[in-house]
Amino acid sequence: MSAPLDPSENTALRLTLDLVQRGTEFFGRELQGLTDDDLVGNSLLPGWTRRQVVAHVVSNAGALGRLAYWADTGIETVMCASLEARTAEIEAGGILRPDALRGAWADSADDLERRWHSLPDDRWSVPVRNGQGAMVPLRETTWMRTRELWIHAVDLDHGAGFSMLPEEVLERLLGDIVGDWAARGDTSRMLTATDSTHDGYGDPDAAEHVTGSLADLAGWATGRVQSGVVSDTGETPAAPRWL
């Protein structure tokens, strides 16, 4: 039996679950604003249509739901059987009729919410395997879902921008990205938000310092936005690969 969450972990979990709920509503509003013709148009992800982005978010809900099942039952259930299976699932979703795709989105979001809210408190500490193969406590999957919802709502490219994301999402996102760069051995830049009291992201002694608003830095660091940030090198830098 896993130990129950301590008070600080429980508070963090509840706050992230709230961000998931708000992100679900945000993504849903963006999707609702798209016509059937809009869905076949390009998203901000190169080579992806909007309908493929929606199918990806649907697939993500199912994958995280399988991890919740693992934590609840003790039966190991991976997010996806393979990269090929994940790709096939998204491709199958991407060719659904618009009404069926919208229904799949709503059903998948509702199903994940039900799975999470039915879990006993001690199940949130159960280790499960994330998409990179690492074992993490189930509670971390709520942040994984948060990122998917808010970022991919912007990817639908229908008016939503990073400036609409909550500050706590932007700050944690930048921390993740810089941490991922560092894990690959890239510590060559420091990111500083001009509209935040945060000390910055990265090594203060890094060779390059990049500044911009939280929203612009997040858009740039995720590879979605190519403007709004400046470097002390005097040029607008290209962001390293994130994922």
Protein architecture, described:
This is Maleylpyruvate isomerase family mycothiol-dependent enzyme. One of its GO terms (molecular function) is isomerase activity. It holds the Pfam family MDMPI_N. The protein is α+β, with helices and mostly antiparallel strands. It folds into two domains: 7-159, Four Helix Bundle (Hemerythrin (Met), subunit A); 167-231, 2-Layer Sandwich (Nonspecific Lipid-transfer Protein, Chain A), CATH 3.30.1050.20. Helix content is 52%, strand content 8%. It is built from eight helices and six strands. The chain has helices at residues 7-32, 36-39, 50-73, 83-94, 98-117, 140-155, 167-183, 214-221; strands at 127-129, 135-137, 189-193, 201-202, 208-212, 230-231. It has a four-stranded mixed β-sheet. A two-stranded antiparallel ribbon has the order 1-2. A hairpin with a 7-residue loop joins strand 3 (189-193) and strand 4 (201-202). Helix 1 (7-32) packs antiparallel against helix 5 and helix 3 (50-73) crosses helix 4 (83-94).
